[in-house]
Amino acid sequence: MKRWVKRAVGSALALLVLLSSALYFYTKDYYHAQEQVVSVFSMADHIEVYDDYTVLAADSAAGLIFYPGAKVEETAYLPLLSKLQQAGITCVLIKMPLHLAFLNPNAADDVLAELSQIKHWYMAGHSLGGAMASAYAAEHMDKIEGVILLGAYVYGDLPDARALVIYGSEDGVLNRNQLTSGTITVIKGGNHAQFGCYGIQAGDGEASISAEEQQAQSAAIITEFIQSSAK
User: Fold this and answer.
1) Are 77 and 150 in contact (CB under 8 A)?
2) Residue 42: CA atoms inside 13 Å, Cβ hemisphere, count?
3) How far, in Å, are 44, 154, 157, 212 from residue 217 at the CA level?
4) Which residue of 35, 147, 170, 176 has the fewest C-beta atoms within 10 A of its own C-beta?
5) SS3 of 189, please?
6) First-residue to last-residue Cα distance in the chain
7) For 91-114, what is each residue's pLDDT tens digit?
8) How far apart are the C-alpha atoms of 76 and 230, rounded to whole Å?
9) CA-CA distance, 165 to 152, in Å (whole number)?
10) CA 225 distance to own-chain centroid
């Protein structure tokens, strides 16, 4: 009996090591932010970088917490968020463990506690980050006034009026059959990856507009949503 238990424990430990190694090598291969994101740090004002998140501060009562897509370096979304900052929205970009939002879905907790001066909070995210942001918002509707999903679908119980879904017409990654709720807006010519600046994503469609144009349109749509829904 003892010998059987030892074998079972040994097998379990071996499986755990194997899975841990597989996860390690999987996450080492991720999408890096492109060089143009450096210009955001040099040109934008009021950016504070902390261990787990970056704050792009604006003189506004509205704030947006952003969860990056799976295996995407978080700084790839700075160009989009800097446009929202210029529109008067404080943005908080979360740095996820191993670039996977599901490893820290409650990352917004710390932001809400630290930036208590913000009165109207919104969650946002891209792809997997959008799903995790949506799930968080659904569980914290007393604190979050709305959620913005980029190339993602609503995950959790959220009223349509409080969930904005934006995706590109050439998106080759998003499962559109899951787009069954939320207020949906399509960016003509956009794709999945161009909400950030990290290059071409495997399986994605080819965009017919630039990343700059896709992000500019997204920022305008998000700004209108927040301004119209803020209490």
Assistant:
1) no
2) 5
3) 19, 21, 27, 9
4) 35
5) coil
6) 65
7) 999 999 999 999 999 999 999 999
8) 27
9) 7
10) 17
pLDDT at 1: 54
- Regions of the chain with pLDDT less than 50: 5-6, 8-10, 22, 25
CA 49 to each of CA 30, 53, 81, 196: distance values in angstroms, whole numbers, following the listed order:
21, 6, 14, 19
Which of 167, 175, 202, 209 minimizes the C-alpha distance to 31? 202
Residue from 196, 147, 166 nearest 40 by CA: 196
- Whether the Cβ atoms of residue 154 and residue 182 lie closer than 8 Å to each other: yes
CB 81 within 8 A of CB 56: yes
Question: Tokens 């920022």 map to which residue?
Answer: 219
Nearest to 150 by CA among 124, 118, 176: 124
